[in-house]
Structure formats: structure tokens, C-alpha cells
Amino acid sequence: MKKISTRAAILAVLLLCFFESTIYAQCDCTVTTAAGTELDVSPFAGGVDANTFFGYPTPATSTSTNTGYEVNDGLVVMLYQDGAGVISLLMFIDAFGNGTAGSGNLTVDCLGTGTVGAVNDGGSDNLTSNGMGGYGGTFAWPGDQNDGAVIENIGCGQTFTVSGDFMGINNVFVVGASGSPIPIGPAIDGVTISCGPGICCPSAFEVSAAINNPTCPTSQDGVIVATATAGTPPYQFELLDQNGNVVDTQFPNGTNPAVFAGLEEGSYTIRVTDSQGNVYEGCETETTVNLVAQDLPPVANPATVLGCTFDDFSAEVDLTQAEDDITGNDPNLSVLWYEDPDLMFPIPFPPLHTVFGPFPTTVYAVVTNGLCPSEPVPIA
Length: 380
Hints:
By secondary structure, the protein is mainly beta. It has helices spanning 6-21, 50-54, 323-327, and strands spanning 29-32, 38-41, 44-45, 74-81, 87-93, 102-109, 116-119, 126-129, 135-141, 147-152, 159-167, 171-175, 182-185, 191-194, 206-212, 222-229, 236-240, 246-250, 258-263, 266-273, 284-291, 307-309, 314-318, 334-338, 352-356, 363-368, 377-379.
């Protein structure tokens, strides 16, 4: 057996340590589109930092990308890992030399707070961090030019979303370790990239509501139509009363709204849970709405009914004599008459009504605006 010198052994150990120090653990990620299509990717390995690979060495310096991964009229999203193990998110918009101008906006949510953003073309573009791991950017490019952005140091273990709307973009591609652009659909809206076990709740995830107020304070005919946006469907909608009690739960298909009906006036909270990660166990958002019924008519004003007594046990009275006093001459109000306070026996044909003694006797006036009645008021 051939002996290895001490010097050679030390050199071998040093080389082994060097190579071990430059080998980084693979970051396995899953790309999920808004339509639910999944694609397993890991970062593309490059020897230079992300900005240099993208085509310019200094953030916010106006130069063109030169990676060779641009696609005509396409948006390319790339996971990139440099020689130091730093993972970045690169985006190439449109393609140099295809003659098509365009513009758009981009939102990235739930990245780590240590990320660094840079954007190509300084004049008409911006890429702004919200300080909480999210970025928003706007882009515009003339014909025969492209555009793009770099967000460095996103790390491995994050779950984040990429969404946007770009004019002139017909296809979206993902580039991973293979280096080949893989088409994932015609739009970027709501793409989730998961490189860890967590979920990402985009800042744009919200619920809006349209309402129909109850007819009267005692009515139960109010309606709330709730719609969720920017989350991961299907959604769970919960309606809570002002005490925080769940009064209704709905599970509409896809992005359809939830309709809560049969509601009385009051304050309600709509809480929505999406299905990112697990069905109905993802992100939450909520909003508060108030249902307010129109005011009741005023309680009947004091009035006196005059009549002609036939004998000791009956009399004929003209009820309309008192209606102007009762309604305050408001043309929008009218009076309904009853013989009893429980409103069981209406008086169908005023003005003349026969009442029976012993006297004095009482009838009851209810003021209405055509929809809502007031409480009954005795009129002697």
C-alpha cells in the first residue's frame, strides 16, 4: 500500500473543507398558480450575484438585462442562487428587440425583512419595499426594450406570492434549476411560491360588502353580499354579530360571493378564511358593516275625536278630523285606525265609524310611511 505524506493529507483535508464550504443545501420550492396548477422547482445555480447575473452590477442603474432568459411578450419569474448561497427572485418582463411596448404593476408579498430590491430602468419604474417583506412596483417600457426587477436574499423557507397585471404580456414562465422557462399560464395574478411550510397572506387579500338595509327597525329582511379578492379560493365566509357570535357560515364555490339574508339592523363582522395551505385554514381577513333601517314614523300626536252620540251606548265619530293633528300635516304619513291596542280589529272604512259605549271610549292610531308603522297610540 502506498503511503500518503502528512503534507498531502493536510492538503486533502483543506480541499475537502473548501468544497464543503461552497456546497449549499438545495432549496425545494413549489409554484402554485391561481388556477391550482403546481410545479416543483429549485433555484437556478449561478456563480455571480443576482444583480450581476441580471445584467447590471448596481441597483437602480439603467442597463438592459442580458441573461438570455427573456421571452417575447412574456414574463419570466426565476429563482436564482448565487455562488455564496444567496437566493434571489428575478423577473424579466417582455423581451429585447421584439418591438412591443408595455406597462404593468407587480406585487410581491411575504418575503423576509432582510431582502434587497433593485429595479431596471430608473426613470419610469419603481420597486418599493413596505418594510414588512413586501414589494410593490410599476413598470413601463417602450418598443424594442425589456424590463425587470431583482429582489435579493429572499432565503429558503419562505412562502410568498407574486401578482400583477401587465399589458403586452401573453404568457408567464418559471425558471428553476433546469434553466428552461416553463410556461405556467397567461397571467401572473396570484402565483404562490412556497419554499417552506408557512403560508403567505397577501396584503391585497380583503373582503368587500354590498348591503340592502332592513325595511324597518323590527324587520328581518336586510341583506349582505360579501366578496373576497386576492386570496386563495375556495373561501369560508363567517358572519358575526356585534357580540362576536357566528350567526351564519357559507362556503360559496370558487370566487363567488356569499349572500347573507334575513338580517335585522345592527353591526356585523364578515370574516373570510381562504384555502392557502389547507382548505378553509389559510389566511384571514375581515370587515365590519352596519345595517341601518329607516326611521320609524313619529308616534301619533295627541288628538281628540269628536262625534255625535246616538244614545247611551253608541256614537258616530269622524276619525279623519284628527288625522292632520296626528300626522302633523306630513303628506308622506298616513294613519291606520284600530279598535284595540293589540291591533286585532282594524277600522276599515273611516271617516265615519260607530263606536259603542259606555263612554268615553278609545280608538287607536298607528302612523305609517307606507313601509313601517309606529307604535299604536290611544285616541279618546
